[in-house]
Design goal:
The chain is mainly α. 85% of the residues lie in helices and 0% in strands. It has one domain (2-76).
Length: 80
């Protein structure tokens, strides 16, 4: 019930904002283009963060595998 009410409210707000935008309530500025540019910039920043995090994970996994291999060698040699 609450989810339905929230969805209806969200849809109603969205329709109202689109109506106002079409009527020119927000002026003649390029509001849509500015929003798209900000969205693209934010998306680009997120992609860069994901690439960086992916590199970190790859390095961590490589390091982890190296440690695991060293541990197995030491166990086989009965050092540990």
């Amino acid at each position: 019930m609450k989810a339905e009410a929230a969805a209806r409210l969200e849809l109603s707000i969205e329709k109202e904002l689109l109506t106002r935008l079409r009527q020119g309530v927000y002026g003649e500025s390029d509001i849509m283009n500015e929003s798209q540019e900000a969205f693209k910039k934010a998306l680009d920043e997120l992609e860069q963060e994901e690439e960086y995090e992916s590199e970190e994970v790859t390095l961590f996994l490589s390091y982890s595998r190296s440690l695991e291999n060293m541990f197995q060698i030491l166990v086989r040699r009965r050092v540990i």
